[in-house]
Fold each of these.
Amino acid sequence: MRWRPSSQSQIEDRRGSGGFGGMSGLGMGGGGIPIPVGGGIGGIVLVIIIFIVLQFVGGSGLGGGSQGGTTGSLDPKDEMGQFVNAVTVDVQTFWDQEFADAGQSYSNTVTVLFTDGTQTGCGAASSATGPFYCPADKKVYLDPGFFDELTTRFGAKGDFARAYVIAHEYGHHVQDLLGTMDQVQQQQTSSNANELSIRLELQADCLAGMWANWVMAHPDQSDVESITDQDVTDGLNAAAAVGDDRIQEQATGTIDKESWTHGSSEQRMKWFNTGFKQGSLQACDTFGASSP
Ligand SMILES: [Zn+2]
């Protein structure tokens, strides 16, 4: 995977800011959406405090860096920060074009980088939560430490495995903008909640595959300059590595299909590949498929 640091900044860098006693053990696994945990007033107050502090120190992070060239002190200078930023900008460049082609408008958001714990519109998050998208504040949250875990614990290596994780979370942002996330929330009952969650997650995998299709078809056009067949294999491996069956087997030695929320390794690979091969939203209709 060939990439270059982006001239735009779509990162909100909270690394090293100490965290706020994040809530661990939500058991999200890779690429989860956290269930809003009530947070309430305390959470809102903390977010406001963070906002004020960031304003005070001249940060440019909050409020979405949709325009290029913001050079606040929070722009990442390290390679990891630049990598996450480049992928974020690239994925959003793709979706911006895709929405425009369909006569709709995409709204840019940011990836919040944090270490240990941070406060989000969906409650407190810790590194143990895993990367996630919060529909309440429309931001993607990521502790880059997860990438080490992806390699050591889940056995998925390569830059593109990491890029897939970011693209998956932006798939949730797209689902949010398209209203899919709301529809799922309205339809969820105690008996179909996991089934709908799996379809939502597999669709996010498919949307990540659509981005990979676009990068492959347009080398040198954007910040992620090109990917190879090996990268696609790394992406598929990562999708398999965060399958519910794989994670459960690793953690407990048994597989309990009823408790799945993201889909099996095979399903996740299948839908990433569907998006990659077909490159269209229609192909990513995991809700219409009789068995996804
Ligand atoms: Zn997800």
Amino acid sequence: MVKPKILAFAGSLRKNSYNKRILNIAVEGARRKGAEVTLLDLNEYPLPLYNADLQEELGFPENASILQQILLEHQGLLIASPEYNGSLPAALKNMLDWTSRANGELKIGDCYRGKWAAIMTASPGNFGGIRCLGHLRDILSIMLVHVLPLEIAVSRVDRLFDGDSSEMKDESMRLFIESLGESLAEVLIKSIQTEKAVK
Ligand SMILES: Cc1cc2nc3c(=O)[nH]c(=O)nc-3n(C[C@H](O)[C@H](O)[C@H](O)COP(=O)(O)O)c2cc1C
């Protein structure tokens, strides 16, 4: 049986992040469809702000190299990111920038090219963080990632959880988010099967 590997991470560094919570819901959906999912917390891989001079003087940061290796081991990306001032948080953009760079044998974009991604966002605001998704989609597309047409913005997310609880109270929204994880797993299974068939 084909078991696609998905890397799931949030663009928020916050412990009780809503985006981490919706990410976990989508992960359940992906696992139910047979995907092997690795949950990654960007807090565990702190990176300096991207500066090409650093690379020249100190070499490629160890955490950026580790993240590149982790990315290379996965075919899919499941990303939940907050919207910061109409775009994605600097921590997420910085991570994408570092890991997109050439490093040793790796050429620019090697960690991303040809992968599939599903993206979502959550906000206590009325628009649910939707503006960050357009930016994230553009960035991933430039890195030649196939981003699923379905994307989810969860508005008024603070009303869907009790305090720090990870249990989403709105059943239909929970199922919708799970379905995004399921769709990513399904498209990956199909793409791996097609790849095998043409070989
Ligand atoms: C610097 C900053 C900028 C923000 N800008 C927006 C915004 O443009 N749109 C929005 O809906 N929420 C905005 N917010 C509120 C976030 O949506 C809210 O803090 C959310 O809980 C962050 O996601 P998290 O819970 O996953 O950390 C902003 C928050 C911060 C800290």
